[in-house]
Amino acid sequence: MHSLFTEHSSFIRLLILGVLSFIFYGPLQAQEPESNEHSIILDPAEYNPDDEEQSLFKPQSLGDIQPTEYKKFEREDGTISIEARSEASASGLVVPLDLDPFEYRYIKWEWKIDKVLEEGDLTEKDGDDYAARIYITFDYDKSNLGFRDRVRYFFIRTFTSFDVPLRAINYLWANKVEKGTVAPSPFTDWVQLIAVQSGNETAGRWVIETQDIIEDYRKAFGEDPPRISGISIMTDSDNTESSSVGYYGKIVISKDKSMSFEEAVDFAK
């Protein structure tokens, strides 16, 4: 029983980040993200670490693990981003959402890292650390779970109060694997990892990404996605007991693939 609880404690620890739910933040008068007829913009300028209630991005700790330090970062052009510094630490910033992925199909964002983690390994729990990652969680109906996963879900709900996400995509700036790799988290196949960047080739430079949420979900889970329940960012280094630094610009959830990241951001001004 001890080993079973230990295994599931690690599983729960990973998934707590995805508890974007409204257990914590639903009742609060949180700031709404920018939006227009084309896109929703998650703007780091709306991160307020001194006023959690009015901040768009909400801090989410992982139990007793030392939290990553997140702060606003002003770039040379005056653009506000979020700087994340992790020293054997892990935590995230989350934005609860309720979106139809068939309407808001594309996610576009800008990010940067100083360098990847040398000890990071996508296949191992002890290597599950990244300088930058972005989660999308989905409102998956637990009645669709198979027997084994229902048992796992019941176990988690019995020993915790967390309403864990049953499906999540995790876009990674991976450490070693080939770009485009899709693999289950070493903790649970409820979370699927997608390597959007990998290695140090573009480290130190801002990189713009565009991903098709429906296509990625189908690759990861073999079916169509349910509604999007939230988006979060995370920089961590606790498993490898090392350090990492990541930077996050605006995140755009868009209806239009043809509209570039820059166009979407400019249109929202």
What does this structure look like?
The chain is α+β, with helices and mostly antiparallel strands. It has a single domain, classed as Jelly Rolls (Sandwich). The protein is 18% helix and 35% strand. It contains five helices and 14 strands. It has helices spanning 2-16, 22-25, 147-159, 213-221, 261-268; strands at residues 34-35, 39-42, 58-61, 69-74, 80-87, 90-99, 106-113, 133-138, 167-174, 182-184, 191-198, 207-212, 228-236, 243-254. The strands form two sheets. Strands 1, 2, 4, 5, 7, 12 and 14 form a seven-stranded antiparallel beta sheet that branches. Strands 3-6-13-8-9-11-10 form a seven-stranded mixed beta sheet, with helices on one face.
From the alpha carbons, calculate the radius of gyration and give it in angstroms.
17 Å
The count of helical stretches stands at 5
* Number of separate structural domains: 1
CATH topology: Jelly Rolls
Helices and strands, in order, run as HHEEEEEEEEHEEEEHEEH
Biggest sheet character: 7 strands, antiparallel
Could you outline the blueprint of secondary structure elements for this entry?
Blueprint: H1 2-16, H2 22-25, E1 34-35, E2 39-42, E3 58-61, E4 69-74, E5 80-87, E6 90-99, E7 106-113, E8 133-138, H3 147-159, E9 167-174, E10 182-184, E11 191-198, E12 207-212, H4 213-221, E13 228-236, E14 243-254, H5 261-268
Parallel strand pairs: 9-11
Antiparallel strand pairs: 1-2, 2-14, 3-6, 4-5, 5-14, 6-13, 7-12, 7-14, 8-9, 8-13, 10-11
